[in-house]
Automatic annotation (TrEMBL), chain A:
This is Spermidine putrescine ABC transporter permease protein. Residues 59-261 form the ABC transmembrane type-1 domain. Belongs to the binding-protein-dependent transport system permease family. CysTW subfamily. It is found in: Cell membrane.
TrEMBL record, chain B:
It is found in: Periplasm. CDD domains: PBP2_PotD_PotF_like_2 (cd13663). This is Extracellular solute-binding protein. The lineage of its organism: Bacteria, Bacillati, Bacillota, Bacilli, Lactobacillales. It comes from Lacticaseibacillus manihotivorans. GO terms for molecular function: polyamine binding.
Automatic annotation (TrEMBL), chain C:
It is a multi-pass membrane protein. The lineage of its organism: Bacteria, Bacillati, Bacillota, Bacilli, Lactobacillales. CDD domains: TM_PBP2 (cd06261). Keywords: Cell membrane, Membrane, Transmembrane, Transmembrane helix, Transport. Belongs to the binding-protein-dependent transport system permease family. CysTW subfamily. This is Spermidine putrescine ABC transporter permease protein.
Amino acid sequence: MKKSSTNVAFYVPYVLWLALFVIAPLVLIIYQSFFDINGHFTLSNYATYFSSGTYILMTFNSVFYAFVITVVTLAISYPTAYLLHYTKHKQLWILLIILPTWINLLLKAYAFIGIFSQNGGINTFLSMVGIGPKQFLFTDAAFIFVASYIEIPFMILPIFNGIEELNESFVNASRDLGAKWWQTFTKVIWPLTISGVKAGVQAVFIPSLSLFMLTRLIGGNRVITLGTAIEEHFLVTMNWGMGSTIGVVLIVAMFIIMFLTGERKKKRGRRA
Amino acid sequence: MKKLISLTVAVLLVVLGLAVWSAELQKSQGATGDNTLNLYNWGDYIDPKLITKFEKETGYHVNYETFDSNEAMYTKIQQGGTSYDLAVPSEYMVEKMNKAHMLLPIDHSKLKYLNTFNPDVMNRSFDPGNKYSLPYFWGTLGIIYNDKFVKPGEIQHWDDLWKPQFKDNIMLVDSARDIMGFSLVSLGKSMNTTDAPTLQAAKAKLDSLAPNVKAVVADEIKMYMAENEAAVAVDWSGEAADMMAENSHLHYLVPSEGSNLWFDNLVIPKTAKHFKAIYAFLNFINKPENAAQNAEYVGYTTPSAKAQALLPKSVREDKQFYPNEAIIKRSEVYKDLDPSVVGLYNDLFLEFKMHRN
Amino acid sequence: MKKMKLSNLYLWVVFILLYVPIIYLVMYSFSKGDTMTNFQGFTMAHYQELFADTRMIQIVIDTLLLALLSSLIATAIGTLGALAIHRTTKPLMKNTVLSLNNILMVSPDVIIGASFLIFFTALKIPLGFGSVLLAHIAFSIPIVVLMVLPKLQEMRQSMLDAARDLGSSNAQILSRVILPFITPGIFSGFFMAFTYSLDDFAVTFFVTGNGFSTLAVEVYARARQGISLEINALSGVMFIFALLLVVGYYFIQEGQAKRKAHAKKGGHALEKTH
């Protein structure tokens, strides 16, 4: 009797939040996606999305860039998180990794513009060593670099937490059994920290699908993602129906990603 | 557990302290609710000294809130829940808001400086008789070039932007109506074109401009041009004035075949509550000396003829910023187009942005 | 030995990379010019400008107030939510709730902002501090859940069983066993919620009104005329403050942990995880 009453107390605020701030807006977005710009009920938004070359290309672009950003971020973050784990004041260092995210994104973007511009830090340096100025802004490389920069802390934190949970005795056992460092890594460390990596990939890949501010500031609008289109439909053309449709597509994509990662976890559990 | 509780208490104490401090600051700024004016304007679009002066002169407290696009402002006013007394939409948005019955008429009998306005900017098609709006600033769309890279006279027409020597050297402002608009003008069509084939043709012509386009950006364009990042830009006159103040190599011109005339206007949205403060402000900001001070701060073109006369000679006689009748005649004001046409403009513009060679 | 040096070098490179833009921002807050290119001589003028700007100070205070309060409430609700999800035994139910939980994290800010605006106005909630607070709590809850849940999953059932065998009530198990164990997760949740709140622009922009503004919204508004170096000065001040706070907090914690460890000597497996 008592047990059930405490259970209810746990559920109430969270369920209330789910209902009011997740399910209600979700229903609203799905509802909106069935209306055209003149407020008539229609399925044409979905038809447009799946038949127009523009949106398909945009989706492809978004997935491609999000993928590259995630790979770059992961490649930098995993070793960082791993090495941080063995430092002396690791809790302090991890806090210091998060700290840069407290500075406004727009400001950091402007700082990068200053660094990359024709008269900026890098080009001054290149001119000094005799290479001469290069165009950095508005290139794919600059966009991916800055986007990865923004996402790195959100990747390091979950991986770091995953590595913290790693039982050191497995690693030692593997070493004692004569495994090479690389073997220990691929056979023991990586599989045991994969859940942290998955959390990090989710935290980076999914938001990267809908980046919009950086595509303009650093990419000069030569990189167009689904986020740009949503932004435009909500704020410029006021075609909320089409904007919501793209939103629904993104949410479905998220469900698919969550489902895939969730299932694999279970399999691993069964094997173990 | 103890740690959690003590930390919670600590955070709550800090919150309380901040709340008290915030309330104190609010009080020291003189806000009480009844004597306020809620001004909803673009960011940094008024001389802050004028706000202070207005508060001192009249005793009203100004709540300055900002938006960054006409459409975002429209959404917020339409949804209600706010109590903006004055807002500053562009001309097509005045028309749209008026159609949606979101504006209150302005009582001309309470205005002191109505006769000081430049007649060229009054009584335009978006608000005949200025029943619902008073111009706040106005200007044109044009071309900015840097004389380090471009010889004077090399650019005179919109078509000159397509010249191969500007390869990868042009910046465009991120605005569908404006960019599609100049392409239309270069084809000899109206900036308010609504038929799809003509718009497709304009988009096809833009695609052929793509090799010259370095980037499509928004407010940052000013910084880029000031830093010599590109040779040429297409932007509004007000933005051009800002860039030119930073970099003396920059020049602004309106192509002779015509361009867009834009107006930002003061309107009273239906959410308004403080009518005395509203008229006090309208009379304050349109007083020639205040309007002139504001124009000097913002750098845009003032609609007040009397204020214009108070500006330095080099400014008030600058033909690019105070255009003569011939340019005004050849230029068009945007109409509030049907939403589906606006959608088409934006879809085509988006396709152009995705077009890569 | 050599490997150790190499790894330290790597960490240094990553840290420098993360801090370069921030150092750049702070450096230009001392520049006489008014853009972030071409440093033009040292001045403190932007700091004087900042401290004379009452509107800015008010906004900074409101932003911090909002971030602290919203992340505190979000942490409480999110922790309860994580406990609830953890107790759910049906995998389908669990996955569904988790997916719903993540919706707000993946939806673009503009959609969240617009739908919250419609929602608040439909309920006749006036726009201002209250509506922004509700919105910030709402979008911070999922990250708290995601931070707390792994800690709960890590907890061994045997620990709870042992406590129950010793006759503890549910409330006692919660306060004496579960909460202390998941405290690190709760802290990271609070920390991340705070980060999200500070960073948010789009959602706040839609749901604010009646004179309430946050730092992010103000920065975007001012960016129209190019970012004034006063904002750089503000970033500098806030950053140094945050840095001192974090480092100070850490060393106080360390000191306490050491003293405790000293006093107890051994048998403190739980303490070690803070």
